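Hey,
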Amino acid sequence: MNTPTNNEKHPHVVGNTRAKTTERGRGETAAPPRFTLFSRLLHWAMAAAVIAMLFIGAAMVTSPAHYAELRSLHQPLGTLILALVVLRFINRLLHRPPPHPPSMGPWERIAASGSECLMYALMFAQPLVGWGMVSAAGTPVELWGPLRLPALLPADQGLYAVLRETHTLLAYLLFALFTAHMCAVLFHTLVTRDRLLSRMGFGSSTRPDE
């Protein structure tokens, strides 16, 4: 008569062990290196500012009755985004970002790096185009109270029309790129489960079962 092995006596233990091994093999509990604290603060501050700017910009088009109030928010917020993106670019030059997780293939890493560069370019160009557009309209960029930005371009209605179209196009591109970025993050969070988002997180970098 054969004596049952420990595995046969407790099959559920083996199953749980395999499950944990599989989970760790997929990288679910491996904590990737994080960005610096200042980089993470800049990231989330810019994310909040860009989301607010997109909603305010859409409301300016769909709610003309509140255009003046929305514009008083739109212009200083755009100036803040321009300052933040310059600060973030300098910070990126001084601090090398952590490596991509192993779950990302070569082409996915190239796409991630390329989209990041394009995001930087759009967030830098969009406020500048808006500043130039307002200047070409012959009106100042109003920040708070009497504080205003100097004119970036001379007043010119033809130039204003071109910059207005450019500003709208860049807004659509920024919205599309931002949406693609969010979809990629959700894919890595819910499907790949490689904890990509934790690189920008603030909580504990490990799970309770680690």
